[in-house]
Write the C-alpha coordinates for this entry.
Amino acid sequence: MDGDDSLQIDQTEKAADRLPAESWQEQDMNNCISLAKSSPISILKKNGLLQSLAAGVSTKEPEDLNQDLKRAQEEWDAVESIQPGSTPQNRADVFVGQLPSISFNEALQHFQTADLSAHMKNIQVTASRTGLFAITRLLFGPPRLHRDLQEERNLVFAIAQCSFDNNERVHTRVLQTVYKKLTGSRFDCSRYGSHWEEVGFQGVDPATDLRGTGFLGLMQVLYLIMNPQTLPLAHSIYKLSQHQSQNFPFCAMSINITRIAIQTLREECLNKECNRRKQVVGVVNDLYVAAFLHLHHIWKTQNKTISDSGLVLKEVEDVCKKNPKLILKRLESYLNKEHSVLDATLEDMSSLHPSSAVTGQSLKLDLPSGVKETNFTGVCELAIEMEGETRLI
Protein backbone atom coordinates (compact mmCIF):
# COMPACT_ATOMS: atom_id res chain seq x y z
CA MET A 1 0.00 0.00 0.00
CA ASP A 2 2.84 2.38 0.95
CA GLY A 3 4.58 1.48 -2.26
CA ASP A 4 1.57 2.45 -4.34
CA ASP A 5 1.33 5.84 -2.57
CA SER A 6 5.02 6.46 -3.14
CA LEU A 7 4.60 5.61 -6.82
CA GLN A 8 1.69 8.06 -7.15
CA ILE A 9 3.66 10.77 -5.34
CA ASP A 10 6.62 10.27 -7.71
CA GLN A 11 4.32 10.43 -10.77
CA THR A 12 2.63 13.57 -9.48
CA GLU A 13 5.93 15.28 -8.64
CA LYS A 14 7.25 14.48 -12.10
CA ALA A 15 4.09 15.93 -13.67
CA ALA A 16 4.52 19.05 -11.56
CA ASP A 17 8.12 19.42 -12.68
CA ARG A 18 7.03 19.22 -16.30
CA LEU A 19 4.48 22.05 -15.89
CA PRO A 20 5.76 25.42 -17.16
CA ALA A 21 6.32 28.21 -14.71
CA GLU A 22 4.37 30.73 -16.77
CA SER A 23 0.53 30.93 -16.98
CA TRP A 24 -1.36 27.72 -17.64
CA GLN A 25 -1.96 26.82 -21.25
CA GLU A 26 -5.19 25.11 -22.13
CA GLN A 27 -3.66 21.82 -23.26
CA ASP A 28 -1.36 21.52 -20.28
CA MET A 29 -4.23 22.45 -17.99
CA ASN A 30 -6.43 19.65 -19.35
CA ASN A 31 -3.62 17.09 -19.05
CA CYS A 32 -2.93 18.12 -15.49
CA ILE A 33 -6.59 17.96 -14.53
CA SER A 34 -6.87 14.42 -15.97
CA LEU A 35 -3.86 13.32 -13.97
CA ALA A 36 -5.07 15.08 -10.83
CA LYS A 37 -8.41 13.28 -10.94
CA SER A 38 -6.67 9.95 -10.39
CA SER A 39 -4.66 11.23 -7.40
CA PRO A 40 -5.85 11.45 -3.79
CA ILE A 41 -6.68 14.88 -2.40
CA SER A 42 -3.93 14.58 0.24
CA ILE A 43 -1.29 14.17 -2.48
CA LEU A 44 -2.55 17.15 -4.46
CA LYS A 45 -2.62 19.30 -1.34
CA LYS A 46 0.85 18.19 -0.32
CA ASN A 47 2.35 19.18 -3.66
CA GLY A 48 0.50 22.50 -3.95
CA LEU A 49 -1.38 21.37 -7.06
CA LEU A 50 -4.83 21.84 -5.52
CA GLN A 51 -4.21 25.55 -4.96
CA SER A 52 -2.86 25.96 -8.48
CA LEU A 53 -5.84 24.22 -10.06
CA ALA A 54 -8.32 26.31 -8.06
CA ALA A 55 -6.57 29.52 -9.06
CA GLY A 56 -6.55 28.50 -12.71
CA VAL A 57 -10.24 27.57 -12.85
CA SER A 58 -11.43 30.76 -11.12
CA THR A 59 -9.48 33.01 -13.46
CA LYS A 60 -11.87 35.06 -15.63
CA GLU A 61 -11.03 37.49 -18.38
CA PRO A 62 -11.94 41.16 -17.77
CA GLU A 63 -14.09 41.16 -20.92
CA ASP A 64 -16.26 38.35 -19.51
CA LEU A 65 -16.63 40.22 -16.23
CA ASN A 66 -17.77 43.36 -18.07
CA GLN A 67 -20.41 41.37 -19.96
CA ASP A 68 -21.69 39.85 -16.71
CA LEU A 69 -21.92 43.28 -15.10
CA LYS A 70 -23.77 44.66 -18.10
CA ARG A 71 -26.25 41.76 -18.05
CA ALA A 72 -26.85 42.18 -14.32
CA GLN A 73 -27.49 45.91 -14.77
CA GLU A 74 -30.07 45.23 -17.50
CA GLU A 75 -31.89 42.75 -15.26
CA TRP A 76 -31.92 45.23 -12.39
CA ASP A 77 -33.32 47.99 -14.63
CA ALA A 78 -36.16 45.65 -15.62
CA VAL A 79 -36.91 44.92 -11.96
CA GLU A 80 -37.07 48.64 -11.12
CA SER A 81 -39.82 49.26 -13.70
CA ILE A 82 -42.45 47.16 -11.89
CA GLN A 83 -43.78 47.08 -8.38
CA PRO A 84 -43.04 44.02 -6.25
CA GLY A 85 -45.73 41.39 -5.89
CA SER A 86 -45.85 37.72 -5.06
CA THR A 87 -46.06 35.39 -8.04
CA PRO A 88 -47.46 31.89 -7.62
CA GLN A 89 -45.28 29.04 -8.75
CA ASN A 90 -45.32 28.07 -12.44
CA ARG A 91 -46.87 31.43 -13.42
CA ALA A 92 -45.01 33.98 -15.50
CA ASP A 93 -45.34 37.66 -14.65
CA VAL A 94 -46.66 39.12 -17.90
CA PHE A 95 -46.57 42.71 -16.71
CA VAL A 96 -42.94 43.60 -17.32
CA GLY A 97 -42.39 47.20 -18.36
CA GLN A 98 -44.84 50.06 -18.60
CA LEU A 99 -48.11 49.52 -20.49
CA PRO A 100 -50.04 52.58 -21.70
CA SER A 101 -53.52 53.13 -20.30
CA ILE A 102 -56.45 52.26 -22.52
CA SER A 103 -59.81 53.92 -23.05
CA PHE A 104 -63.15 52.16 -23.21
CA ASN A 105 -63.39 53.13 -26.89
CA GLU A 106 -60.15 51.39 -27.78
CA ALA A 107 -60.97 48.28 -25.76
CA LEU A 108 -64.41 48.04 -27.37
CA GLN A 109 -62.88 48.42 -30.82
CA HIS A 110 -60.67 45.42 -30.06
CA PHE A 111 -63.70 43.21 -29.45
CA GLN A 112 -65.57 44.64 -32.44
CA THR A 113 -62.75 43.55 -34.74
CA ALA A 114 -61.79 40.31 -32.97
CA ASP A 115 -63.02 36.88 -34.02
CA LEU A 116 -65.64 36.01 -31.39
CA SER A 117 -67.40 33.31 -33.40
CA ALA A 118 -66.54 30.61 -30.85
CA HIS A 119 -68.16 32.68 -28.09
CA MET A 120 -71.17 33.60 -30.22
CA LYS A 121 -72.14 29.92 -30.34
CA ASN A 122 -72.52 29.80 -26.56
CA ILE A 123 -74.43 33.00 -25.83
CA GLN A 124 -77.97 33.03 -24.48
CA VAL A 125 -79.65 36.19 -25.72
CA THR A 126 -82.98 35.80 -23.89
CA ALA A 127 -84.14 34.08 -20.73
CA SER A 128 -85.82 30.76 -21.37
CA ARG A 129 -89.56 30.69 -20.59
CA THR A 130 -92.13 27.95 -20.99
CA GLY A 131 -95.87 27.44 -20.62
CA LEU A 132 -98.26 30.17 -19.56
CA PHE A 133 -95.46 32.47 -18.48
CA ALA A 134 -94.00 32.43 -22.00
CA ILE A 135 -97.40 33.27 -23.54
CA THR A 136 -98.00 36.08 -21.04
CA ARG A 137 -94.56 37.50 -21.72
CA LEU A 138 -95.18 37.42 -25.45
CA LEU A 139 -98.53 39.23 -25.18
CA PHE A 140 -97.83 41.72 -22.40
CA GLY A 141 -94.05 41.77 -22.06
CA PRO A 142 -91.50 44.26 -23.39
CA PRO A 143 -91.12 44.91 -27.12
CA ARG A 144 -88.70 42.93 -29.22
CA LEU A 145 -85.28 44.39 -29.84
CA HIS A 146 -84.97 45.95 -33.28
CA ARG A 147 -83.26 43.69 -35.78
CA ASP A 148 -80.43 46.14 -36.51
CA LEU A 149 -79.50 46.15 -32.78
CA GLN A 150 -79.34 42.41 -32.32
CA GLU A 151 -75.73 42.16 -33.52
CA GLU A 152 -74.66 44.74 -30.94
CA ARG A 153 -76.57 42.90 -28.22
CA ASN A 154 -74.85 39.66 -29.20
CA LEU A 155 -71.48 41.42 -28.95
CA VAL A 156 -72.24 42.32 -25.32
CA PHE A 157 -73.04 38.70 -24.48
CA ALA A 158 -69.96 37.48 -26.38
CA ILE A 159 -67.66 39.78 -24.38
CA ALA A 160 -69.27 38.35 -21.25
CA GLN A 161 -68.14 34.91 -22.49
CA CYS A 162 -64.49 35.93 -22.97
CA SER A 163 -62.00 34.86 -20.33
CA PHE A 164 -58.97 36.89 -19.36
CA ASP A 165 -56.04 36.09 -21.64
CA ASN A 166 -52.52 36.78 -20.36
CA ASN A 167 -51.21 36.74 -23.93
CA GLU A 168 -53.65 39.41 -25.13
CA ARG A 169 -52.12 42.87 -24.77
CA VAL A 170 -55.48 44.66 -24.67
CA HIS A 171 -56.59 42.51 -21.74
CA THR A 172 -53.50 43.33 -19.72
CA ARG A 173 -53.81 47.04 -20.52
CA VAL A 174 -57.42 47.12 -19.31
CA LEU A 175 -56.49 45.44 -16.03
CA GLN A 176 -53.50 47.71 -15.47
CA THR A 177 -55.56 50.81 -16.28
CA VAL A 178 -58.16 49.84 -13.68
CA TYR A 179 -55.47 49.39 -11.04
CA LYS A 180 -53.61 52.62 -11.80
CA LYS A 181 -56.76 54.72 -12.14
CA LEU A 182 -58.18 53.56 -8.80
CA THR A 183 -54.96 53.66 -6.78
CA GLY A 184 -53.34 56.67 -8.43
CA SER A 185 -50.19 54.64 -9.12
CA ARG A 186 -47.98 55.69 -12.02
CA PHE A 187 -46.43 52.24 -12.39
CA ASP A 188 -47.62 48.86 -13.59
CA CYS A 189 -47.96 46.11 -11.04
CA SER A 190 -47.40 42.37 -11.11
CA ARG A 191 -49.98 40.13 -12.76
CA TYR A 192 -50.38 38.15 -9.54
CA GLY A 193 -50.12 39.36 -5.98
CA SER A 194 -51.94 40.62 -2.90
CA HIS A 195 -51.94 44.18 -4.30
CA TRP A 196 -55.06 43.28 -6.33
CA GLU A 197 -57.00 42.99 -3.08
CA GLU A 198 -56.35 46.70 -2.58
CA VAL A 199 -58.79 47.53 -5.40
CA GLY A 200 -61.32 44.94 -4.31
CA PHE A 201 -60.49 41.68 -6.03
CA GLN A 202 -60.80 38.66 -3.79
CA GLY A 203 -57.42 37.05 -4.34
CA VAL A 204 -54.02 37.29 -5.99
CA ASP A 205 -55.46 36.59 -9.46
CA PRO A 206 -58.19 39.02 -10.66
CA ALA A 207 -59.17 36.64 -13.48
CA THR A 208 -60.75 34.23 -10.99
CA ASP A 209 -63.36 36.86 -10.09
CA LEU A 210 -64.48 37.20 -13.72
CA ARG A 211 -65.99 33.74 -14.10
CA GLY A 212 -69.57 34.97 -13.83
CA THR A 213 -69.31 37.97 -16.17
CA GLY A 214 -66.29 37.30 -18.35
CA PHE A 215 -64.30 40.25 -19.61
CA LEU A 216 -67.41 42.45 -19.54
CA GLY A 217 -66.80 42.70 -15.79
CA LEU A 218 -63.56 44.60 -16.49
CA MET A 219 -64.99 46.55 -19.43
CA GLN A 220 -67.72 48.14 -17.35
CA VAL A 221 -65.48 49.20 -14.49
CA LEU A 222 -63.17 50.63 -17.18
CA TYR A 223 -66.13 52.62 -18.54
CA LEU A 224 -66.90 53.93 -15.05
CA ILE A 225 -63.38 55.19 -14.33
CA MET A 226 -62.46 56.43 -17.83
CA ASN A 227 -65.66 58.36 -18.55
CA PRO A 228 -65.18 61.98 -17.34
CA GLN A 229 -68.90 62.19 -16.51
CA THR A 230 -68.84 59.20 -14.17
CA LEU A 231 -65.28 59.44 -12.79
CA PRO A 232 -66.34 61.54 -9.74
CA LEU A 233 -68.93 58.89 -8.90
CA ALA A 234 -66.27 56.18 -9.24
CA HIS A 235 -64.05 58.03 -6.79
CA SER A 236 -66.93 58.42 -4.35
CA ILE A 237 -67.81 54.71 -4.49
CA TYR A 238 -64.19 53.65 -4.19
CA LYS A 239 -63.72 55.94 -1.18
CA LEU A 240 -66.77 54.39 0.50
CA SER A 241 -65.36 50.90 -0.20
CA GLN A 242 -62.30 51.87 1.87
CA HIS A 243 -64.39 53.03 4.86
CA GLN A 244 -63.29 51.67 8.23
CA SER A 245 -66.62 50.00 9.06
CA GLN A 246 -68.59 50.10 5.77
CA ASN A 247 -65.82 48.79 3.54
CA PHE A 248 -66.49 46.32 0.73
CA PRO A 249 -64.42 44.85 -2.13
CA PHE A 250 -64.87 47.45 -4.88
CA CYS A 251 -64.10 45.33 -7.96
CA ALA A 252 -65.94 42.29 -6.65
CA MET A 253 -69.00 44.46 -6.03
CA SER A 254 -68.64 46.00 -9.48
CA ILE A 255 -68.62 42.53 -11.06
CA ASN A 256 -71.87 41.74 -9.23
CA ILE A 257 -73.39 44.91 -10.70
CA THR A 258 -72.27 43.77 -14.15
CA ARG A 259 -74.00 40.45 -13.55
CA ILE A 260 -77.23 42.35 -12.81
CA ALA A 261 -76.82 44.36 -16.03
CA ILE A 262 -76.31 41.19 -18.09
CA GLN A 263 -79.37 39.52 -16.60
CA THR A 264 -81.51 42.64 -17.10
CA LEU A 265 -80.53 42.72 -20.77
CA ARG A 266 -81.14 38.98 -21.16
CA GLU A 267 -84.65 39.32 -19.71
CA GLU A 268 -85.35 42.01 -22.34
CA CYS A 269 -86.05 44.68 -19.74
CA LEU A 270 -83.84 47.12 -21.66
CA ASN A 271 -85.32 46.52 -25.12
CA LYS A 272 -87.55 49.60 -25.05
CA GLU A 273 -84.73 51.92 -24.05
CA CYS A 274 -82.31 50.32 -26.52
CA ASN A 275 -84.82 50.77 -29.33
CA ARG A 276 -85.40 54.40 -28.36
CA ARG A 277 -81.71 55.27 -28.20
CA LYS A 278 -80.77 52.98 -31.10
CA GLN A 279 -77.89 51.41 -29.18
CA VAL A 280 -77.23 48.59 -26.74
CA VAL A 281 -73.71 49.03 -25.33
CA GLY A 282 -74.45 52.57 -24.13
CA VAL A 283 -77.69 51.53 -22.44
CA VAL A 284 -76.10 48.55 -20.69
CA ASN A 285 -73.21 50.71 -19.48
CA ASP A 286 -75.59 53.38 -18.18
CA LEU A 287 -77.65 50.76 -16.36
CA TYR A 288 -74.45 49.47 -14.74
CA VAL A 289 -73.51 52.97 -13.57
CA ALA A 290 -77.07 53.69 -12.40
CA ALA A 291 -77.19 50.43 -10.44
CA PHE A 292 -73.82 51.19 -8.81
CA LEU A 293 -75.10 54.67 -7.89
CA HIS A 294 -78.20 53.12 -6.35
CA LEU A 295 -76.10 50.67 -4.33
CA HIS A 296 -73.80 53.50 -3.22
CA HIS A 297 -76.76 55.55 -1.97
CA ILE A 298 -78.27 52.64 -0.02
CA TRP A 299 -74.92 51.63 1.42
CA LYS A 300 -73.99 55.12 2.54
CA THR A 301 -77.31 56.43 3.86
CA GLN A 302 -78.38 53.23 5.60
CA ASN A 303 -74.95 52.43 7.05
CA LYS A 304 -74.74 49.05 5.36
CA THR A 305 -71.81 46.71 5.89
CA ILE A 306 -70.42 43.74 4.02
CA SER A 307 -72.82 41.43 5.87
CA ASP A 308 -75.72 43.26 4.14
CA SER A 309 -74.30 42.91 0.62
CA GLY A 310 -76.60 40.06 -0.45
CA LEU A 311 -79.80 41.92 0.47
CA VAL A 312 -78.59 45.19 -1.03
CA LEU A 313 -77.67 43.53 -4.33
CA LYS A 314 -81.06 41.83 -4.45
CA GLU A 315 -82.78 45.20 -3.97
CA VAL A 316 -80.67 46.76 -6.73
CA GLU A 317 -81.47 43.88 -9.08
CA ASP A 318 -85.21 44.18 -8.45
CA VAL A 319 -85.18 47.90 -9.26
CA CYS A 320 -83.19 47.35 -12.46
CA LYS A 321 -85.54 44.69 -13.77
CA LYS A 322 -88.85 46.19 -12.68
CA ASN A 323 -88.23 49.82 -13.60
CA PRO A 324 -84.98 50.41 -15.51
CA LYS A 325 -86.38 53.67 -16.87
CA LEU A 326 -86.63 55.09 -13.35
CA ILE A 327 -83.13 54.12 -12.26
CA LEU A 328 -81.66 55.51 -15.50
CA LYS A 329 -83.49 58.79 -14.96
CA ARG A 330 -82.03 59.02 -11.45
CA LEU A 331 -78.56 58.64 -12.89
CA GLU A 332 -79.27 61.40 -15.39
CA SER A 333 -80.46 63.71 -12.59
CA TYR A 334 -77.38 62.92 -10.51
CA LEU A 335 -74.99 63.64 -13.38
CA ASN A 336 -76.80 66.85 -14.30
CA LYS A 337 -76.50 68.01 -10.72
CA GLU A 338 -72.80 67.22 -10.68
CA HIS A 339 -72.31 69.08 -13.96
CA SER A 340 -74.20 72.09 -12.62
CA VAL A 341 -71.77 72.30 -9.71
CA LEU A 342 -68.84 71.87 -12.10
CA ASP A 343 -70.16 74.52 -14.50
CA ALA A 344 -70.55 76.98 -11.61
CA THR A 345 -66.98 76.28 -10.52
CA LEU A 346 -65.65 76.77 -14.04
CA GLU A 347 -67.62 80.01 -14.37
CA ASP A 348 -66.02 81.31 -11.18
CA MET A 349 -62.59 80.31 -12.48
CA SER A 350 -63.28 82.09 -15.77
CA SER A 351 -64.17 85.29 -13.94
CA LEU A 352 -60.83 85.11 -12.13
CA HIS A 353 -58.91 84.17 -15.29
CA PRO A 354 -60.81 85.54 -18.33
CA SER A 355 -58.10 84.38 -20.71
CA SER A 356 -58.68 80.74 -19.83
CA ALA A 357 -61.54 78.77 -21.36
CA VAL A 358 -62.72 75.22 -20.99
CA THR A 359 -64.24 73.55 -24.00
CA GLY A 360 -65.63 70.10 -24.60
CA GLN A 361 -64.97 68.02 -27.64
CA SER A 362 -66.54 64.71 -28.61
CA LEU A 363 -64.22 61.99 -29.75
CA LYS A 364 -64.93 59.99 -32.85
CA LEU A 365 -63.65 56.42 -32.96
CA ASP A 366 -62.02 55.41 -36.24
CA LEU A 367 -62.96 51.84 -37.06
CA PRO A 368 -61.72 49.63 -39.87
CA SER A 369 -63.86 49.50 -42.99
CA GLY A 370 -66.82 47.19 -42.70
CA VAL A 371 -67.06 47.51 -38.92
CA LYS A 372 -70.17 49.18 -37.57
CA GLU A 373 -69.52 51.98 -35.11
CA THR A 374 -71.24 51.60 -31.76
CA ASN A 375 -72.52 54.69 -30.02
CA PHE A 376 -72.12 54.54 -26.28
CA THR A 377 -70.69 57.81 -24.99
CA GLY A 378 -74.01 59.49 -24.23
CA VAL A 379 -75.05 58.94 -20.64
CA CYS A 380 -78.78 58.50 -20.09
CA GLU A 381 -80.10 60.60 -22.96
CA LEU A 382 -83.67 60.28 -21.71
CA ALA A 383 -86.50 62.57 -22.70
CA ILE A 384 -89.29 60.83 -20.80
CA GLU A 385 -91.23 61.60 -17.66
CA MET A 386 -90.41 59.76 -14.49
CA GLU A 387 -92.85 57.39 -12.93
CA GLY A 388 -93.34 57.15 -9.19
CA GLU A 389 -91.21 58.70 -6.50
CA THR A 390 -87.94 60.43 -7.28
CA ARG A 391 -86.31 59.31 -4.02
CA LEU A 392 -83.77 56.48 -4.21
CA ILE A 393 -85.08 54.87 -1.04
User: Anything to note?
Assistant: The CA atoms of residues 270 and 354 lie 45 Å apart. DSSP finds 17 helices and no strands in the chain. Residues 324-352 form the longest helix (29 residues).
